[in-house]
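Practice problem: predict the structure.
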Amino acid sequence: MDFIPVSEPLFGQEEEDLVVDCVRTGWISSEGKYVQELEELCAKYSDVKEGIAVCNGTAALAVAVEALNLPKGSEVILPSFTIISCVLAIIEAGLKPVLVDADPETWCMDTDQVEKKITKNTSAIMAVHIYGHPVDMDPLFDMAKKHDLKIIEDLAEAHGTTYKGIKCGALSDIAIISFYANKLITTGEGGMILTNHKEYADRARSLRNLAFKPEKRFLHTEIGHNYRLSNIQAAIGVAQIRKIEKFIERKIEMARMYNEGLKDLPLQLPVKKDYARNIYWMYALTINDEVGIDAVELAKRMHAKNVQTRPFFIGLHEQPVLHDLGLFINESYPVTERISKQGLYLPSGQAITNDQINHIVKSMIEVFSEF
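Answer:
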């Protein structure tokens, strides 16, 4: 079996046709028609009023947090188990990040810990949906109402996920999507901000575009960013989002095959809570402690069988660069620490074949037979 990458996107004739059309029109920058169409399609799919396209998911987070205009120095609660982009958006907006641990079953933020971290200085909660499964949002809604907090959703890994039948992205004050190459739909690099609030949408559009003022373009009253998405990228995205439900169905089928093949191994496989539509963005798992190996060792052995894997996040509280900023020193989040060592995900891209999945399952069984 040839080498199987952890994620490979799937493109067809429609993506090619729209990109060619984009090039032929000459509208290749952020002013072309496909940017607006992608914004409209993403907003409609997620059941929100506004979509604002940007150049990547990290930029989307930065603009989303900044668009809320939270009090400088106030606190935003987020999980330690997430990508560093989340905390960067908070720091760059002049806010203070406050961490909670992960839920041991879903690996999303442990909502039971959030209330304990709320202070008079808390202004928002960042809910990060992990590996296709949503955060348990109802407790966060109750806290937000009680303490007058904003909720920011990061659905970079959960585009199409639902919570109690409601699309993730429509649950919060503002939300973001990523269109990175391994995401459910991709533009290579790209992102989207979603909101039902026109005030936040207008501010986000300004911030992504160097804060140009419509009435006097080169007069600036605040600092903005050049975070625009190109029309060529958006053309790919338009073709991709038209197939999003098909892509989700394939993800769920991949998960079914992996679940069936790996069920007898000493692993914690992905869960699906009753409130959730898990889209299984990536097929993630953790190794039971009694096995005696960690994810690094499993990754090496799978690589020897031509299977690429990807490790789980290292917790934000264990990041040296954040310690250098005086953040999270001597903090400990045991669930995050454990799954960071014991977790990885298997190849799950749209281009994977059933034969490849069967090879991966067989390889996993062979590896674990050695212990």
